[in-house]
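Weekly sync, protein design subgroup
Attendees: M.S., D.O., the rotation student, P.L. (late)

Item 1: inverse folding check
M.S. brought a backbone from last month's batch and wanted to see whether the design step gives back something sensible before we order anything. D.O. pointed out we never logged the input encoding, so this time it goes straight into the notes. Structure tokens as presented (411 positions):
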């Protein structure tokens, strides 16, 4: 018998007795080396089929963490993580908690502006309402043959990326940031969509949606489409409407969804629905937003539409814009359907991509990542129902007074 075996088998060998139960309960656990039972359990967490948090909970507390401790721990941890995420992803005013949008890195069209023969390329993302503006203008003006487009998708890290199914058709880059970085001056900042790129100069033309939309209107001519979305005689009125719908509706839904205080949310929601109530009244007597003589569909309508088409699907449930659904506004919903039914418009609206882009990517607002069923009012069949707005005048009889009243309601 080996000395070690003999030592273990010796009947005279003394071993300490365990302490009485009362002392066992009070004794503090010693620091355990990795070779101990507890240490080995901690090491096995890495190889466990369970997620690390569940495995660690099992080691420390057994099969389940007491419910009260679970709720308190998760509430504190999640709230802290949520505030950190929101500060990074959706900056807010520290004093009020109100969402503040980060300005575009290239807010104006680069000068000199690209000429008629420039090789331009448009980068968009289908979930994004700002990118949808540029994509919709491109479709309505028939610019598709002259303006190629690449569609980026939200990556797991939240950045815009390309996939084999949706590639960068110009350079074959993996990420939109890589395209930005290809500009001659380099790039630092947020790689956002939409982005208009000049391939000849290897330069960003612009990444501010309303300015891209206006620039695309200058590319249209008689050979593309009869629509004039930015007619000179209505530009002041378009800008006035934009000054109302951008802060209250376009950005208003984000101010609701990304508010970091109750007061900030209440203010944003009140302004949003005051604007929607006003728009419902205006559009009950006018076919489109602009009220000037001979006005038709304009950029103001494009900018309003890209928010309305997402309202019942995304902003009502996810961003807590919950006082009313858009389908509860008869004139607004019919107006949205009319824009949707314009030639080429429906093809720019991918409801599945919109739902996935918001519910699947904005995990601070939807941490489970569960995608909702598309509401019946957002189905293609519902959106193609007759809108019945043909009888309405293209110009309201209010000769601009309605717009003046609007500013006082939502300002």
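Designed sequence read out in the meeting:
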């Amino acid at each position: 018998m080996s000395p070690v075996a003999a030592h273990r088998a010796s009947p005279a060998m003394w071993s300490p007795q365990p302490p009485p139960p009362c002392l066992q309960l009070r004794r503090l656990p010693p620091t355990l080396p990795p070779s101990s039972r507890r240490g080995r359990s901690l090491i096995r967490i890495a190889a466990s089929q369970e997620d690390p948090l569940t495995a660690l909970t099992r080691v420390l507390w057994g099969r389940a963490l007491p419910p009260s401790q679970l709720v308190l721990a998760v509430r504190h941890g999640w709230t802290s993580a949520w505030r950190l995420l929101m500060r990074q992803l959706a900056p807010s005013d520290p004093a009020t908690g109100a969402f503040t949008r980060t300005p575009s890195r290239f807010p104006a069209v680069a000068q000199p502006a690209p000429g008629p023969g420039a090789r331009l390329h448009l980068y968009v993302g289908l979930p994004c309402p700002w990118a949808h503006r540029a994509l919709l203008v491109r479709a309505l003006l028939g610019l598709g043959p002259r303006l190629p487009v690449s569609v980026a998708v939200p990556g797991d890290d939240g950045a815009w990326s390309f996939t084999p199914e949706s590639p960068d058709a110009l350079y074959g880059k993996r990420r939109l940031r890589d395209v930005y970085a290809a500009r001659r001056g380099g790039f630092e900042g947020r790689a956002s969509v939409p982005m208009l790129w000049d391939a000849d100069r290897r330069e960003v033309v612009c990444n501010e949606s309303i300015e891209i939309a206006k620039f695309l209107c200058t590319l249209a001519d008689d050979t593309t489409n009869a629509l004039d979305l930015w007619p000179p005689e209505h530009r002041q009125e378009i800008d006035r409407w934009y000054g109302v719908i951008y802060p209250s509706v376009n950005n208003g839904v984000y101010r609701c969804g990304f508010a970091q205080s109750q007061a900030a949310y209440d203010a944003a929601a009140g302004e949003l629905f005051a604007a929607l109530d006003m728009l419902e009244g205006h559009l009950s007597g006018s076919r489109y937003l602009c009220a000037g003589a001979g006005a038709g569909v304009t950029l103001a309508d494009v900018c309003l539409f890209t928010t309305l088409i997402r309202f019942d699907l995304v902003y009502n449930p996810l961003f807590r814009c919950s006082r009313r659904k858009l389908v509860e506004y008869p004139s607004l919903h019919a107006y949205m359907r009319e824009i949707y039914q314009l030639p080429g418009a429906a093809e720019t609206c991918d409801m599945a991509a919109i739902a996935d882009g918001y519910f699947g990517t904005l995990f601070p607002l939807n941490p489970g990542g569960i995608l909702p069923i598309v509401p019946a009012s957002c189905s293609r069949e519902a959106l193609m129902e007759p809108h019945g707005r043909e009888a309405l005048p293209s110009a309201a009889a209010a000769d601009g007074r309605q717009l003046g009243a609007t500013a006082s309601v939502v300002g």
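Discussion: The mean pLDDT is 85. The chain is about 45% helix and 5% strand.
Action: P.L. to compare against the previous round before Friday.
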